[in-house]
Specification:
Distance between the termini: 20 Å
Helix content: 40-55%
Strand content: 15-25%
Radius of gyration: 35 Å
Structural class: alpha+beta
Number of strands: 15
């Protein structure tokens, strides 16, 4: 079979050479489109459930919220582990599925089981968190006042929540945008107990009045000229003075306004932690990505969106990039690429010294780019990304990629020299075929043995298997590609 392959490659050397060139172009284009990340996809299919239970201690949250949620999740098809954490007023439950589980189907199963949870405290409803990557935090963006003090924390938080966050969330690949610091602006109604007692009112009346100041109701329709006009009673307002004018009750035939029994003012919600940039109060936005998203391209899209939305922030707001995961990816990928480059240069120098022929060196080196592009096509077919592990596999394989071609080219070169000294030299094609056929068994067997050494990598399970399997895929595909090149392209070029 291998003799036939070698013979056909020599007889059709022009089509083989053109096919190799087309493969090089196709593989290079595919490699340029592959997603780029620091590590392979280590995201175990996990559904996160969060439930807020204000006022409850961690012990109460554990007993009243976390345990019922865990009990409902246990036994879900494909579920392997349930973890939880209970904090003051907050329960977080992680439902982990097998590595091969479909995350969307897993979320559907969890959603069905949420509806079956009973005996939870009033107002407590578990909700599913967004699908995020284990390497999800790709950007930290700071919004600060410039100069300091021109914009207060709540104003910056409002810009972050209602201007920046919706725009970034609209970008495909963004999982979540979390705002930190600044404080959420609220309207506070600080009740005066003495005034309440003087007017004979209670807290329920104050609560109902404050709620009614933030509502709207329908008032029917007004028909005129065969058209209906809807009538609405609009009471929603953010003006503390107008909220203070809301009637709470009546005393001696006179309405009692809200501001007569309470102080209505603007304030901040209760804050747990804060944020700052360069020592000044600020709001920080944490941008999380979805699993499988290309970090470099997504970062570029987010930065373009920030530039676009910058004009809507107004004067006095400075946008600062505090953390950029793409910088670390660029640095790590650049280091591996430099190792690949240096390896190729060293291999070329060694080949030129020992073979003492520029033509044989050039023919041998063709195995490196062809093997690399075949590996890129294999990674694309398997849905893998370009990362430090896949590039590391290629870096390890550099020396062996040219091994098969060296054996073939060196033997062909020697046989051609011997043939040239004969009184009646044989045709060059026949000599090349004979020389390639002599070493084919050595090439195939040595390649298979090297591949077998890396096969145990695929038996690793868990995170180890997900981490090292791409290295094995890149290494094995490149080695097998180099063997195929030595049996086809190398004899044709010879």
């Amino acid at each position: 079979m291998f003799d036939t392959l070698i013979r056909l490659s020599i007889q059709n050397r022009l089509p083989v050479t053109v096919a190799a060139l087309l493969l090089l172009l196709w593989g290079g284009w595919t490699a340029a489109l592959l997603p780029v990340d620091v590590f392979p996809d280590l995201n175990r299919p996990t559904v996160t459930l969060m439930a807020e239970a204000g006022g409850l201690s961690p012990e109460e949250v554990e007993v009243l919220v976390t345990r019922p949620v865990e009990a409902a999740m246990n036994g879900a098809p494909g579920m392997e582990r349930v973890r939880s954490q209970s904090a003051p007023g907050l329960s977080v439950v992680w439902v982990e599925f097998g590595w091969e589980a479909d995350i969307w189907r897993a979320r559907q199963q969890v959603g069905e089981r949420i509806a079956q949870i009973g005996d939870l405290p009033d107002g407590v409803t578990p909700v599913m968190g967004p699908i995020s990557s284990i390497m999800g935090e790709i950007l930290l963006i700071g919004l600060s006042s410039a100069p300091p003090g021109q914009r207060d924390g709540p104003a910056l938080r409002a810009l972050a929540d209602w201007t920046v966050r919706p725009r970034v969330l609209s970008i495909p690949g963004v999982s979540q945008v979390i705002a930190i610091g600044g404080g959420v602006e609220q309207i506070h109604v600080d009740v005066d107990p003495t005034a309440l007692a003087r007017f004979g009112l209670d807290l329920d009346a104050v609560r109902e009045a404050a709620a009614s100041a933030q509502g709207s109701s329908a008032g029917g329709f007004l028909e005129r000229k065969s058209q209906e006009y809807m009538i609405r009673h609009l009471a929603r307002t953010a003006d503390p003075a107008r909220i203070g004018d809301t009637a709470v009750g009546r005393r001696d035939g006179t309405s009692v306004a809200l501001d007569q029994v309470a102080a209505v003012r603007r304030g901040r919600g209760i804050m747990r932690g804060d944020a700052g940039v360069n020592g000044s109060p600020a709001v920080i936005l944490s941008v999380q990505k979805q699993p499988g998203a290309d970090t470099l391209r997504l970062t570029a899209d987010v930065e373009a969106a920030l530039t676009e939305v910058g004009g809507a922030l107004g004067e006095g707001v400075e946008v600062t990039t505090l953390f950029r995961q793409a910088d670390f990816i660029d640095a790590s990928i650049r280091n591996v690429e430099e190792a690949l480059r240096d390896g190729v240069i060293l291999v070329a120098i060694v080949l030129l010294i020992f073979l003492q022929s520029a033509r044989t060196t050039a023919i041998t080196l063709t195995a490196i780019p062809l093997s690399f592009v075949v590996s890129a096509l294999a990674l694309a077919a398997m849905g893998m990304s370009v990362n430090t592990m896949t590039l590391g596999g290629l870096a390890v394989a550099i020396g062996e990629l040219v091994d098969d071609a060296i054996v073939d080219v060196e033997n062909v070169y020697r046989r051609l020299q011997e043939n040239a000294r004969l009184p009646a030299p044989r045709p060059a094609a026949a000599v090349v075929f004979g020389a390639s056929s002599e070493v084919r068994n050595a090439i195939v067997f040595s390649t298979i043995l090297v591949v077998l050494v890396f096969v145990p990598l695929f038996s690793l399970s868990g995170v180890e298997g997900r981490l090292f399997a791409p290295l094995g895929v890149a290494y094995i595909t490149s080695i097998l590609a180099s063997m195929a090149v030595s049996l086809t392209v190398t004899p044709a070029l010879c």
